[in-house]
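Quarterly update from the structural biology core.
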Amino acid sequence: MTETVLDDADGAWQLRGFVGDEWQWHIGPHKPFTTAGWLPARVPGSVLDDLHRAGEVPDPYVGRNSLLSEWVPNRNWAYRRTFTLPPLQAHERAVLCFDGVDHEATVLVDDTVVVRHEGMFRPFEADVTHLVRGGGEHLLAVVVHPAPQSEPQVGRTDRVRVHKARMGYGWDFCPPMVHQGIWRGVRLVVSGPARLRGVTASAALGPGTEGLREGTVRIEADLALAEGQRAPDGTRLAVRVREQDRVVAETERDLTGMTADTGAHIELSVPRPRLWWPNGAGEQHLHEVEVTFTSGPHTTTRRFQVGFRRVELVPNDGAPKDALPYTLTVNGRRLYANGWNWVPLDAQYGVPRPAKLAHLLDLARNAHVNLLRVWGGGLLETEEFYTLCDRLGLMVWQEFSMSSSGMASTPASDPEFVDLMVREAHAVVPPRRHHPSLVLWCGGNELQDEKGNPLDESAPVLHALRDALGRLDPERAWLPSSPSGVEFLNRADNIARNPDGLHDVHGPWEHQGIAEHNRLYDSGTCLLHSEFGVEGMANRRTLEHLLPDRADRWPAGRDNPLYAHLGAWWNNAPLVQDSFGARIDDVDTMRRASQHLQYDGLRYALEANRRRAFRSSGTLPWQFNEPVPNAWCTAAVDHRGDPKPAYHGVRRAYRPLHVCAAFTGPAWGGRETVTAEVWAWATESLPAGPAVARIVDAYGAEAARRTWPLTPTAAGEPGRPLHLGTLAAPLEAVATDVFFLDLALYDGAGTPLAGNRYLCSRTTDLAPLLDLPPARIEAVAEAHEESDDRGRIRLRHVGGPAAPGLILEDARPYDRPGWAVFGDNVIDLLPGEETSVDVVWREAPVDDRVVRVSGWNTGEHHVR
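Predicted structure, tokenized:
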């Protein structure tokens, strides 16, 4: 078999828009090829991206330009290119294979319609043998029809009739930007009379003790044969399983005489395979499965990476009897889910962005994440996404593309829609079965009944999906919707109304205010917190790119029409002002203040949930990334790929060795005593050394200190939190309005292993941060001994009070390629302290690498 990839490598694809059926006048060998208006196109890609690159629409990711592109999905868009092939032999067949067109398409070869298709996630094909048998040059055209009707975030879920990403129809973090295009690959396959149309692989791990378990690899092969034909003599299917370079299992099956209806099913036993573990729990051992199909002179080889692991959901500690199980066990070991919510990489998701995808997933891994929830308003993620998650140990919770709506959130229940979703499951589930990272299927996001309660399998479509998945992928876990259980929202009244505790909940997505935020999360009772967040402003260079005219950046509230377009739902400028004494009068201070609240609020929420492990089984903040650049958003990593301070707050809370404090809030005005409860935990075991907690003023003077001895077995089961005790001091003993709760864990030799600092105020708000006297710091770049792409920034406090909240940023222009990845950030330096921060320059040219260091009271330092 020969396979020709028809991508844009040779620049052959063109694109043109048409109103109505006018496209039929311009496509075909006897139609006017010379008609003006054909533009260069990319496949895979997206229509809007092609139009922007051709200068037909302005950059939709600047200001309010996206408003000028909302007409695009209402037209037919025709892609065309030529392809050439030699004459076919008498026994040969030619088939066009499409991995994905979004959403509806008509495909023509020359002037003949060869297939019509609907559905962005389902691959399809067309046998074109009769049109190309003589070889030569032919015209391929793909007409992508207007995007189907669907619902934006505020609408009715029961009006959704398609299985397509809803985010692009308008969401709180994405303006209307409906995707169209040939978003996955296109191939021309020439084969003999028997063709391997599809093959799937899966790996299962039997019961038993680690190292003694037996693994099983299952192969299902789908043969394509002309109607009434059987596989000719010599048709064979060979399977080999390799661990690195060693073959650990192999077999061969003679398929002579087989029909397309029967297919081939093969199982191989793999004795004592090395196991795949999630990030932080062990190595990600992968095995290669090689499937070779031979029929006559044609041979096809497909390769898969599989991992042997056993993942189950088990009941949480002390969970109510009616609660679903939410605690992940992997290979028999109970793990806390250090999660995050993932949304599409980009609103124009058809455009390949392999470097950015690798960068973002590596950021997740470096933040100690072990579970990503692929949100149900977005995509069933791609092969590239899953392959990287396999390698990085990132477990995936994959939702079908069904989501809530502001008016009604129950999906349609008629037989036609239910049948559509079952057919979608049959198309999308088997090709993903070989990925060890995929651990959980979920029906959708925030699906609710008419009373607003989380929806279960009483909904016909969820019942049908559960049953279909039970047949298609029985070894993976299932949840009907997120959230699930007795209540939808993590809210104080819901907590009080349910004395047995909440199950899986969402929200809130906003900072609750410096007097209420910690109180809400400390009162939490949920078994799983699968979506919640804190909002914050964009990073500096993203904001400057979004709003290139500085005059447009202030005021930064919703009354500014530019900010109203760029994330109005998450613009909490009034709360930020209230938290800082209504004294913020410029955009740079507003950004720093809002990002501090996002960083501090998200860190505290995660720590509060984690202090309840294993009653709590996991936290998944909303959201990791964003598909378009927003001025305000709940994302922790901006659209460009630069982490906001919030990313580092989550990374800190997810460390395998951690110490934290529970307290009433960062502003202590009106209280007589500063009091904090101190906790510690470790993924493996606590160190044999002391834990030290202090209350320290801005000049380093201690108002209180307490020390607790630790032992490796003090917390019992790995991951279980340990309450150390109470730290307290009279507020009047703190000499400055800005002070710190300072925590540290040490080994037996006194070497610090982990630390945590909380920035506090003696007043009723955080305004004293705006009045800190200047601090002097030094910031110096140090080269790496072995790599030009690695280095470190040494920070040293040399004068004045503490320098809290030091932020390191990539200071290059927005459009420069690559990223600076900092090993730490949001750093508080007390007088006389110094630290070094590792920096990795990923995909970044060496000629203009600049780091900006800035703080509340330090000014800016540029380090080259």
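The radius of gyration is 29 Å.
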